């Protein structure tokens, strides 16, 4: 019996300690520690409220001994005396009145409601706690403007974003695509005590920036996801690329050639021009739009064919060097054909387009026999390498198995005890026991 009451006492004591701790931490949390004299029993909190919305002022009392509580406005007029409202302003409404709290709401808050509200407790001496009401005024929609509608590649442009009439001042951030950029901001205080923030972003554009959105993000406590955006428009001189539609391999006499010219730019090049460097385009060549078509090739068509595109920003071209080889008239020895096919696939078809084509092709045609010889050598070397690699793989597999078995056993020693036993001691005992099922477990832990 005595023991039981003792235990009850102890738990009561610790409960009291706990309560005190909670009280202290709550006091620190609400920031009341800044008013050590008044706030021993009476607490209030500052309030931030968006203009037009409702603010709630709360006066809370701890360990109240029936003292009277009242709420005063910044002019020290009584808003509420206990649960009675002497002030005529009906925007003040009682939300909660108890021994421990007087909670009052103020609806349709305007800027003139800002100030220090006072909670008063009629103790001896009287206590006061303060609730500072701050009215937030959201900025108007951000306005984004760029200096130029369209910018030339490599040029610098400037984009301006303005956030008007907020309280406090907003901050402006910039994003280009998903990259954050740094702008320069200026804050102005207008006659009605509102803030207007302007930010300038300067950036040098590339053709990749064309169509990329630049976003001005306005951060303000009264708004969320407030932004404005503008798409960059960048003009650039054309890029030109010649694509061989036909044929895909080396070009021989009697074949047809078809080239397409791809030209991109902003503004889009109106048309492309085909020319032959240092010569005339063959008279029977057919040019349709960006395509060049030459039928029944012969060696007199050798030369550099150029596609030229231009827009107001400039001109660009790409060259194609045509190199017509002998027709495959003489029935070739089968091995020679194979060799030619191989060299054709290993070297890209546009090899002819690059420098020094004559030596390349001459080698193909005249040294076909030597190449057959070389490919046989290659086959021999390939075989030897394959055998060596296979032998090394075998060795690796054997070594791998050897190590895997050892590692597995090791893991099992440690893991098994820990897994099966309730505590560390049992684990050790278990581990020293038998290894009988270690082989099954091994697989598990690798
Ligand atoms: C309330 O705001 C005032 C400034 O307006 C500040 O000095 C005070 O520390 C704040 N009180 C609390 C409890 O945060
Ligand atoms: C007033 O507050 C007390 C304690 O915070 C709570 O128990 C009570 O339900 C509240 N009353 C109303 C009407 O909100
Ligand atoms: C809110 O207050 C303003 C003046 O501050 C008044 O013009 C407006 O009518 C009020 N709105 C409501 C819903 O009471
Ligand atoms: C911008 O680009 C135009 C070409 O469109 C050029 O004439 C001008 O000089 C450039 N301006 C600057 C500031 O580089
Ligand atoms: C190549 O073709 C053109 C026109 O088809 C022809 O005039 C010329 O004689 C030919 N040249 C050779 C070497 O066959
Ligand atoms: C064209 O190139 C071939 C390469 O096989 C060469 O034999 C021929 O003489 C060249 N013809 C002209 C007109 O350059």
UniProtKB/TrEMBL annotation:
Residues 1-33 form the signal peptide. It is found in: Membrane. The chain crosses the membrane at residues 379-399. GO terms for biological process: cell recognition; detection of stimulus; glial cell development; homophilic cell adhesion via plasma membrane adhesion molecules; retina development in camera-type eye; susceptibility to natural killer cell mediated cytotoxicity. GO terms for cellular component: neuron projection; plasma membrane; synapse. Residues 339-370 are annotated as: Disordered. It is a single-pass type I membrane protein. Belongs to the nectin family. This is Cell adhesion molecule 1 precursor. It comes from Danio rerio (Zebrafish).
